[in-house]
Each structure stands twice: as structure tokens, then as C-alpha cells.
Amino acid sequence: MFEIRTDLAVEEKESFPGRGGEVKGVSLREWRKACSKIKLTEVAILDEQGARAMGKPVGTYVTMEAKALAKGDEDYHREVAEELSVQLKTMLKELKKKHKVPDRKDIHVLVVGLGNPSVTPDSLGPKVLGNLRVNRNMDEGQEDAVLSGIVPGVMAQTGMETAEILKGIIHETEPDMVIAIDALAARSIRRLGTTIQLTNTGIHPGSGVGNHRHSLTEESLGLPVLAIGVPTVVGAAAIVHDTIAALGKTLASHMETQEMGDFLDQLDPDEQYQLICELLEPEFGALYVTPPDIDQTVKRLSYTISEGIHMAFFSHFSAS
Known about the structure:
Elements: H1 9-14, E1 26-32, E2 39-45, H2 48-54, E3 59-65, H3 74-97, E4 108-113, H4 124-131, E5 146-150, H5 155-158, H6 162-173, E6 177-186, E7 195-199, H7 218-221, E8 225-235, H8 236-252, H9 258-266, H10 269-284, E9 288-289, H11 294-313
Helix pairs in contact: 3-11, 4-11, 8-9, 8-10
């Protein structure tokens, strides 16, 4: 089967026949909260069989989809931030149940802003850190969580792997857990800037716009790693593939062009996608596309995500 690059578990789920919940070793749950436009999907990869089928590690992936995130509606972004804080608290509670995170209010969380601040589609992580209220340097004895943060940059800037930098910081500061923020790649253009994925599996090679090479996981860093990501780019070949599929349906629905539409519809998806790649990549390389207003999108979402983190860990930020 052909593989279209995506970092979203919900899109891997959609690539299977049916609703995607029929994959062995994978459970699926979808829901909407009352009076909310936010759609939530939980893809839980339960075992190694599910991991092989999905091409992703065992763990839980929660996706929040909200078309209105593309707009500058502050009230709506606050609603999304509140829901993100709920999902963060849920994952944190699960980690505490497994005794991997201390069950105390002043938990120390290291927030890592992955990406290159000079490349707009890859700057989500650094921008979230710029909005974050870090308080590790403040007086001890506070009731809330302790947040510290770092933007480790990319290897071209530092000459070091992100994992190497984080291991040194973890050794010196001894946090209880890590939250990594990253820009992702999607399969569908409609998910750019309108989708947030939260997972307890960390960041893995090939994930994110910057391809961070070494895993940032509990196994590699020695403490739990939650990851928050937003897709900001989509492969050009995926856009062309979807366009041809839509074109085939349109042609098939008209008498004059039905034969042409039927011909496109009968093409094997693997062959169709491979042909698109063979035509595009020699001319343009492995091209990725981002929306023209990505700077504003990343800026808005960086506030949304930072507020979600604040609400999850600081009592005076909690949603009413």
C-alpha cells in the first residue's frame, strides 16, 4: 500500500477500510462535547500488532479538530485551550496511575519547543515557549506546578542532536516529565492549522517538519514525554492525489466525460500515487506546501497551546 506522509494517527486510521476501528490492536473512540464544535478522536494503539499496522508506537493519540481554529475568534480559541487542558490532565492522571509521575501538585514539567524559529511553518514550538509562563526561577513553596522551558534549536544551528541537549538539561534540572511541542505534517490540507494532536508516546524519528532524528521518548530520556503537535505542512503529491480523485468523480458524473472519469476511478491507488511522485519529485523534489497565512495561524495557535498548558498546571488559570 502506498504511504502518504502524515504525523497524525487519525489520518493513519482513515487510510484503512471502514471506520478504521477494525484494525487489530487498535481501538477507536470519537465524540463531540455538547454545544461544542470541537471533534475529538482517540486512537489507542494497544500492542505491537497495532503498532505495525499503524506505523506508530504503542500509546494514546488524541486529536482535536476545529475548523474555526483558522479564524481569529479569541473566545473559540479559549474553548479549544480549555479542552486541551482537559486532555492534558487526563493523560497526566493516567501517567500517575502507572507511578511514573509523582502524585504532587508542584510537579516539575520541562516544556520543549522543537523547531526552527526562523522557518515559519516550523516555528510553533519556539513560539509556544515564548508565550509560556515559566516559574522554576521563582520562590519555592508555591502550590502550582513548576514549569521550565527550552528551545533547543535544530542540528544545523547547534551541531547537536536535540536528544543530547535534553539529556544534559534533564540531568541538571531533574524534571518529572517533558512536554514537547512540534509542528507536524498532514495528509489532508483541510487539517492544516485546524487540528491539534496530543500523545503520550513522545516524538519519534521522521516526526515533525524538522525531522528531529533521535527519539524523544521515555526510553531515551528516562522520564515520561507527552507531545503536542499541529500540522502546518502537507505534501504536494498528496494534494495532487486528492485533486485527481475529486476530478475523477466529477468527470464520471457527467455523460460527456464519464469514460474519462471511469478510467481515472479504475486506476490502482498505489500506481496513481506512485505516478504522481515520479512526475513531481524529479522537477520539484519532495515538495511540502503550507498556507499563505501560516504566520498568523502559528501565532494564534501558539497562544492557544500555551494557555492550554497554563490551565492544566496553574490553578488560577483554570477554566471556569
